[in-house]
Design a protein that fits this description.
The chain is α/β, with parallel strands linked by helices and 299 residues long. It has helices at 7-13, 29-41, 59-64, 69-79, 89-92, 111-114, 118-133, 145-157, 187-209, 214-225; strands at residues 2-4, 18-23, 44-49, 83-85, 137-141, 163-167, 170-171, 231-240, 254-262, 265-276, 279-283, 286-287. The chain is globular.
Length: 299
């Protein structure tokens, strides 16, 4: 496996069909599942590691975001990445940056108003990665449902040639969606956070039984998370998968998504509701059989 620092070196080393997995590092099995998906259909798998300052709306979040290149390189290599592209700030954003990529409408709801400038930062960095690495396929987690929709729209409208592939959420054994930020949760906060997945699972079950009213699906989530007084909810929304617009009825591919704070840590989670032959199928993601690498070496 090679570690590269520049776009030109990355393009020189990569051969054949290229699969790109953009991440901010501090890897876990969610990221590694993107490598596995890319491994299946590409000759070269490039994982990028870059903590993108443009997408952080809070200084303290950027400052405390976990970073460990050595750890990440080991995990990426073991999962089958061929290249870890770890650019310095200067390679991504040399000099003054006057260009921003904005995907209107899709950024208006949910994460958008709660994290000003976030999606502009994401879309700008992803556009730069697509232009610089020139992958045939790029892999994004369904964990960040709105981000996935925005990246798809951006790549289509700006005519980036490769395709964007969405990959199911990877969860801990107990259902908590993997996130690099989970390492900040105290044992009690982590326990509280399990209500998020419980609520989404109840709603997923209801949707598969034929419930179509957004209010009812959303209430199923609140029935679980409302019972945990230490969780502070920002939103629970049923939105269309393509335009990320809130909908009243489950009548098209959608996702039921939420954001909540457990202590000082902001968590997001969702279930995608895809059409099936006889209604809707909920993508609840996959669960690990053992504890994730996020807890390796602790306790
Ligand atoms: P991040 O490093 O958090 O920016 O995430 C990099 C990529 O990994 C994004 O496409 C995320 O959606 C994806 N990802 C993060 N957590 C998970 C997870 N638990 N399951 C699947 N994909 C994930």
């Amino acid at each position: 496996m090679r570690i590269t620092k520049t776009f030109s070196e990355t393009r020189m080393v990569a051969t054949g069909q290229i699969g790109l997995v953009p991440t901010m590092g501090f890897l876990h099995e969610g990221h590694l599942s993107l490598i596995e998906a890319a491994r299946d259909t590409n000759d070269t798998v490039v994982m990028s590691l870059f903590v993108n300052p443009l997408q952080f709306d809070r200084e303290e979040d950027l400052a405390r975001y976990p970073r460990d290149l050595e750890r990440d390189v080991g995990l990426a290599a073991a999962a089958g990445a061929d290249i870890v592209f770890a650019p310095e700030l200067e390679e991504m954003y040399p000099g003054e940056q006057l260009t921003r990529v904005i995907v209107n409408r899709l950024s208006d709801e949910m994460e958008g108003p709660n994290r000003p400038g976030h999606f502009e930062g994401v879309a700008t960095a992803v556009a730069k990665l697509l232009a610089g690495v020139r992958p045939d396929r790029s892999y994004f987690g369904r964990k960040d449902a709105q981000q996935l929709a925005i990246v798809k729209r951006m790549a289509a409208e700006l005519s980036f040639p490769g395709s964007i592939v969405g990959v199911p959420i990877v969860r801990e054994r107990d259902g908590l969606a993997l996130s690099s930020r989970n390492i900040f949760l105290s044992p009690q906060e982590r326990q509280d956070a399990l209500a998020l997945n419980r609520g989404l699972t109840a709603a997923a079950d209801a949707a598969e039984r034929g419930e179509r009213a957004a209010s009812s699906l959303i209430n199923s989530v609140y029935a679980e998370i409302g019972a945990v007084s230490d969780l502070s909810v920002e939103y629970v929304t049923l939105a269309s998968q393509d335009l990320v617009q809130p909908i009243d009825e489950l009548d098209r591919p959608a996702f039921l998504a939420l954001a909540a704070w457990s202590g000082e840590t902001r968590l997001i989670d969702n279930v995608h509701l895809d059409r099936s032959d006889d209604g809707f199928f909920a993508d609840r993601g996959t669960r690990l059989r053992t504890e994730s690498v996020l807890y390796r070496g602790e306790g």
